[in-house]
Amino acid sequence: MRILLANKFYYRRGGDCIYTMNLEKMLKEKGHEVAVYAMLYPENESSKWSRYWPTNMTKLDAFTRPFGAQQVMKGFTRLMDDFQPEVVHLNNIHTQLSPVIAKIAHEKGIRVVWTLHDTKLVCPCYTCTRDGKWCTECFTDKKAVIRHRCMPGGLPGAVIGYLEAQKWNKEVLQKYVDLFLPPSKFMMDTCVEGGYSAAKFKVLCNFIDVAKVPEPKNIFESKQDYYVYLGRVNEVKGIRTLCKAAAQLDKKLIVIGGGELLHELQETYKECKQIEFKGQMLWDEFMPILRGARFMVLPAEWSENNPLTVIESQSLGTPVLGARIGGIPELIEEGVSGLTFASGDVEDLKDKIVKMFRHEFDYDAIAKNAIDRYSSEAYYETLIGYYHNADDC
């Protein structure tokens, strides 16, 4: 089968990129022909398909790319004509690539599926949050993004976000996309609340490449007296709240990841012995640290969808302390594979960190259950059925 994957970045920047690249690898290993469409970006990994890709966005491009720029349309059309895919699988494409590529594929009679990594379908600013709180105003009135100016770039950014949402509205996107694949029930429910038809959705949880995971045996012996944060070091991930809590406790927190807040937090907590910043790391580098941690904490303050960090942690036998927000609680069985806390609440977070260290977890069982639940084999069998139009709307 010839499958064309699309995602705006082609390096391991975040969950959407990691998912896309893991999916590409899995599909190739299963014998499929796979092409990739992305945006040229300095950090990208090399790809033989990059000759079709649009250049990195300039400030001027921000006024055209979200609506379907000529460079994107021409490059994608050439790739479609040369590769002749049977399925186009979209991922994180808004703004830099835009849903115009779904339109092009649909009009050529190609089946289009779309894995949803955020709430952009119903929220112009991707997150359904405003001033740190859940917001659904744009579900019924997209002009709310202009009133509240909750897009980056102030008023101009808000206007672009509004116009983008108007052009790629739910009627248009449901016409051009055969099937949406939200990795969490939370994501599906959010889109349905925003006006989409439930018949266009199938929940398909993310997967883990079990070949890269050590055997789930005697994990307790590897555990040490520290806990880990793994992910982007930015505002919505709740890293500020976590650092505030960690600085008041006597346990060591290891922060793995890069982002716009990294240098600021390194400076703020440079005298704090309880917090160590590792920066960006690859799987082979952070895997032993994550496996040796007593637990991983995900203090998100926006509605995470189906975070890969939770799946990776549990597959290594590392329980997770997660914020009760978005799709995170769907992945955690209280007292068995982790605990949850009130998002943004420093005191509750501190209390639950202490409880996580005191709680006796069956690490081997956590790993085995996660590997069974998030197996790439099970994921593949379901996905290939959806590619072939099996058991969908």
Summarize the structure.
With 393 residues, the chain is an alpha/beta fold. It has helices spanning 15-29, 70-83, 100-107, 144-148, 154-167, 170-176, 185-193, 239-247, 262-268, 283-292, 308-315, 346-358, 363-373, 376-387; strands at residues 2-6, 33-37, 87-90, 111-115, 129-130, 133-134, 179-181, 226-230, 252-256, 275-279, 295-298, 320-323, 338-341.
If you had to describe this structure to a student in words, what would you say it looks like?
This protein has helices spanning 15-29, 70-83, 100-107, 144-148, 154-167, 170-176, 185-193, 239-247, 262-268, 283-292, 308-315, 346-358, 363-373, 376-387; strands at residues 2-6, 33-37, 87-90, 111-115, 129-130, 133-134, 179-181, 226-230, 252-256, 275-279, 295-298, 320-323, 338-341. By secondary structure, it is of the alpha/beta class. It has two domains: 2-207 and 375-387, 3-Layer(aba) Sandwich (Rossmann fold); 210-373, Rossmann fold (3-Layer(aba) Sandwich), CATH 3.40.50.2000. Strands 10-9-8-11-12-13 form a six-stranded parallel β-sheet, with helices on both faces. A five-stranded parallel β-sheet has the order 2-1-3-4-7, with helices on both faces. The chain has a two-stranded antiparallel sheet with strand order 5-6. Strand 8 (226-230), helix 8 (239-247) and strand 9 (252-256) form a beta-alpha-beta unit.
